[in-house]
Specification:
It contains no helices and 16 strands. With 179 residues, the protein is mainly beta.
Length: 179
């Protein structure tokens, strides 16, 4: 078999937003094949497919419209050569954390995120106000009734296209010591 010993890796612009080091790709990544003889080549985008984690999703060509959590795969001669779970946000996405003077509130600005909806999954005691700023920017103003949490778990949904669960730092001014 020609594919023996070939290792596949993803390459693309990405953000590490969570403390756990998980990556979010800015737009669909490219797949590269690393051959045992040292040669590397990019897999043709036309040979890559995407399947969203949304219920009822089907495999489709990998395009810039593919967002959220899902699986990317490379099919060659009817066989799956490579498959990996990934999370993708629109390529233009920028995320800014804006602490306020009040330690119980802070803002997360999502620019270039498209027509997304955002909800808080956890923790308890954190509320959010969504504010659409222009067509592609969403401002999430977070408030905590108690001591602000270190992280907030968010669900970002692009209706009919995909959704992603992200754990982001709560945008509060704080000091901490690492040992």
């Amino acid at each position: 078999r020609a594919s023996e010993g070939v290792e596949y890796r993803l390459r693309g612009r990405s953000l590490a937003l969570s403390r756990d080091g998980s990556m979010v790709f800015l737009g669909p990544p490219a797949v590269y094949a690393y051959h045992p003889d040292g040669i590397q080549e990019q897999v043709r985008t036309a040979a890559l497919e995407w399947k969203s984690d949304l219920r009822g999703s089907q495999w489709e060509p990998l395009t810039s419209q593919c967002v959220g959590a899902g699986r990317i795969r490379y099919i060659r001669e009817g066989r799956t050569e490579f498959s990996q779970r990934i999370t993708v946000v629109p390529a233009e996405t920028e995320v800014r954390f804006l602490p306020s003077r009040n330690v119980h509130t802070g803002t997360i600005d999502f620019k270039g995120i498209g027509l997304a909806e955002i909800a808080i999954l956890a923790p308890q005691g954190v509320s959010a106000e969504n504010e659409r700023v222009g067509g592609d920017q969403l401002r999430l103003v977070l408030s905590s009734t108690a001591q602000p949490p270190t992280d907030v778990n968010l669900l970002i949904r692009w209706p009919g296209r995909g959704e992603a669960r992200l754990s982001l730092p709560f945008p509060a001014k704080r000091a901490w010591f690492e040992t």
